[in-house]
UniProtKB/TrEMBL annotation:
This is Glycoside hydrolase family 97 protein. Residues 24-312 form the Glycosyl-hydrolase 97 N-terminal domain. Gene3D superfamilies: 2.70.98.10, Aldolase class I (3.20.20.70). InterPro entries: Aldolase_TIM, GH, GH-type_carb-bd, GH97_C, GH97_catalytic, GH97_N, Glycosyl_hydrolase_97. The lineage of its organism: Bacteria, Pseudomonadati, Bacteroidota, Bacteroidia, Bacteroidales. Residues 1-21 form the signal peptide.
């Protein structure tokens, strides 16, 4: 690792001098941030990119929960002495004076355990502003980091006599937009991100909100103009702006609420069961608030701000953490052909009391030993790493919608699932097993069983777990994205690390780059994934937006690779269609980055298209270098990636409602090497709703000078493997 630091310290100064604007410039000079205090002593910042306004002057600060003046507060039950000060103590927004400022430069190159490239540069200029609040005799720090591709800032609360324990009522970080931008958004919700994206002007969010909110197993929409991050926008003068957060630890998840008269976004934290938005103890800090900006959409995809604002890896020896390509007993149940439940005879399960040996199997239970062995055989034959099995454990007959505490124990299999035999069988074929822990959002129950469940995994050869949080949270009244749950998700990851287990969390809070610090967090869902293609379908351009939104925070277990796009072929009662061509399903292995990639369809569907399946077999899940060739949110994304362990490259293109024509130059290839390209393309006239399984496969010799003209159909794409020709 190479690190360079330089510091310039400004000594203590009077208010008159320090109240003037502080200017921070990015290393390349394109971004400029100004900071000052307004007449009320409120912190104000603005941001420009190449002299274009990104963020107009916007205020910062927090509103604390008002103390109860009648409350008995100490051990002797003494009444509060300073009742008159409860209102002003809740104010952490105004009345500040600049105590001192400090600037510094930081430049390092670090190596992720896995990632989109083998090295990441972390280069920024920093402004640290210490703000004194005389009326409360306390101070805070606001830290700004300006990168070439955007801004990060956070609040820091040093330990001090008059700011020790406090409760956040609301954070008031503003992001004032310069106009009525085009936005790619999903409704602000405390419990789910599993919505299709709406593309509209900011001024249209209010009128389009009702249509944008679709049913989910747990949801709480908080405002007619509230949206979630990462929020992607495009201005009329050609800027691409992305708002998100990084390093979400011991704090509530941030959404954004829009003042649609003035086009000002303000942070909106997820509350707990009491309505409070954060219980804090100093020293502590908020997550980073991020603004990524460029006049080239590809730079948004290439930004590593989210990762760079997280702490370095805290796992001393991460050598046991590795990317995984897997198949699984999953799509069978998602389409309704099979079931998670073992029997249809039981309507109420009490673990330890319900005797499944006395029940009649329903004949559709997919997680049975024989079927799982079929998947293990398929994985071994085609070079996959692991097999996921859902529905293996007792309790699925009444798992959902009952607000049930003791719903699963995570160690007791159904009678037709032989844990020991499958462990032996998989190990004999060099295949790992991937555990499934659906919690039904009974988090209290999961933590009760966690150590035992993780030890059970270790004992039976499971090195990774897919966890799920479907439904309303128990403890009742908590939300999926509140501080309490944010702490739980991290607890599960750190506890798993004690057992050398990798975690893929579904329905959890959307990622904020914590996979840098805890790389055993190898995947998340936290968005509308492939399963929704069986639940009525997702928007055709969904996978052209996700790389600009959800993936800004970290990789997604999107579960691509569905070859049979007509779900009625799996289940005659399921009339849903996968709104994608077969070839675009290949491309997603490149455009939807994850070190955890699933071939999500059933083996028999792959066996019908083995020539196309070859791309899924070949494509790596860990990368040395990534090049973003073309990008326009909502329209198309074209990405090239170099295998971490060879000189081979892979290219993927995902297109939306208008299809896409590419004119590519392969200048990212080594100019001294020759390659053979295998091009998987939509057949002429193919679209997601017109002969979606039609494709062509062509091979040709290529070099760094080769130019390719390729066309993706509506909801289509193309995929290319480019392998070095050895002399």
């Amino acid at each position: 690792m190479n690190i360079k630091k330089s510091f310039a310290l400004m000594a203590m100064c009077g208010f008159a001098f320090c109240a003037s604007a502080q200017k921070l410039t990015s290393p390349d000079g394109n971004l400029v941030m100004n900071f000052s205090l307004n007449e009320q002593g409120a912190p104000v910042y603005d941001l420009t990119f190449k002299e274009k306004t990104v963020i107009k002057p916007s205020t910062l600060g927090l509103e604390l929960k008002r103390e109860d003046p009648e409350k008995k507060t100490d051990f002797e039950w003494t009444e509060m002495k300073d009742k008159a000060g409860v209102d002003k103590r809740a104010n952490l927004m105004t009345g500040f004076k600049i105590k001192d400022t400090r600037t510094s430069t930081f430049d390092e190159t670090w190596r992720p355990v896995w990632g989109e490239e083998s090295e990441i540069r972390n280069h920024y200029n920093e402004l640290e502003v210490t703000l004194d609040q005389p009326m409360n005799n306390r101070y805070i720090v606001i830290r700004f980091r300006l990168f070439n591709d955007g801004l990060g800032f956070r609040y820091e609360f040093p330990q001090q006599q008059n700011l020790n324990y406090f409760v956040i009522k609301e954070e008031h970080s503003q992001f004032a937009m310069s106009g009525d931008h085009t936005a790619f958004w999903i409704p602000g919700d405390y419990d789910t991100q599993e919505y299709d994206y709406t593309t509209s002007r900011l001024s249209e969010i209010r009128s389009k909100m009702k249509e944008a909110v679709t049913p989910n197993s747990s949801q709480y929409v908080f405002s007619p103009t509230g949206v979630q991050t990462a929020l992607m926008m495009k201005t009329d003068d050609g800027l691409y702006i992305n708002l998100h957060e990084a390093a979400l630890v011991d704090y509530s998840c941030m959404s954004l609420n829009l003042d649609d008269k003035n086009m000002v976004f303000e942070s909106w934290l997820t509350p707990d069961a009491k309505g409070d938005k954060g219980y804090m103890q100093t020293p502590c800090n908020s997550p980073w608030r991020t603004v990524i900006v460029s006049d080239d959409a590809r730079d948004i995809l290439a930004s590593r701000i989210t990762l760079n604002l997280n702490e370095p890896c805290k796992i001393a020896d991460p050598s046991w953490i590795h990317p995984v390509k897997y198949v699984g007993v999953w799509w069978d149940m998602i389409t309704g052909r099979g079931t998670w439940a073992y029997t249809d005879d039981v309507y109420s399960v009490k673990l330890g009391e319900t005797d499944y040996m006395q029940t009649k199997p329903n004949g559709k239970h997919s997680a049975n030993t024989e079927n799982v062995k079929r998947y293990i055989d398929f994985a071994a034959k085609h070079g996959f790493d692991a097999v996921l099995v859902e529905g293996w454990n007792q309790g699925w007959e009444d798992w959902f919608g009952k607000s049930k505490d003791y719903v699963f124990d995570f160690v007791t299999p159904y009678p037709d699932f032989d844990v020991q035999e499958l462990h032996r069988y998989a190990a004999g074929k060099g295949i790992e097993m991937m555990m499934h822990h659906e919690t039904s959002s009974s988090v209290r129950n999961y933590e009760r069983h966690m150590d035992k469940a993780y030890q059970f995994m270790v004992d039976n050869g499971y090195s990774s777990v897919k966890s799920g949080y479907v439904g309303d949270i128990i403890p009742r009244g908590e939300h999926h994205y509140g501080q309490w749950m944010v702490n739980h998700y991290l607890y599960a990851v750190t506890k798993a690390a004690d057992y050398k287990i990798m975690v893929n969390a579904h329905e959890a809070v959307r990622p904020t780059g914590l996979c840098r610090t805890y790389p055993n967090l190898i995947g998340n869902e936290s968005a509308r994934g492939t399963e929704y293609e069986s639940f009525g379908g997702s928007n055709v351009n969904h996978t052209t937006i996700l790389p600009f939104t959800r993936l800004v925070g970290g990789p997604m277990d999107y579960t691509p690779g569905i070859f049979e796009t007509d779900c009625s072929k799996m289940n005659p009662t399921n009339t849903s269609r996968v709104r994608s061509t077969l070839v675009r399903q290949l491309a997603l292995y490149v455009t939807m980055y994850s070190p955890l990639q699933m071939a999500a369809d059933v083996p028999e569907n792959y066996e019908r298209f083995m020539d196309a399946f070859q791309f899924i077999k070949d494509v790596p899940v860990d990368w040395q270098r990534t090049e973003y060739l073309e990008a326009e949110p909502g329209e198309y994304v074209t990405i090239a990636r170099k295998d971490k362990h060879s000189n081979d490259w892979y290219v993927g293109c995902s297109a939306g409602y208008n299809g896409h024509e590419s004119k590519l130059t392969l200048d990212f290839l080594d100019p001294d090497k020759k390659y053979e390209a295998t091009i998987y393309a939509d057949a002429k006239g193919t679209a997601w709703d017109n002969n979606p399984q039609a494709y062509t496969i062509t091979k040709k010799k290529v070099t760094a000078k080769t130019k390719l003209n390729l066309k993706a159909g509506i909801g289509g794409g193309y995929a290319i493997s480019i392998k070095e020709i050895k002399d």
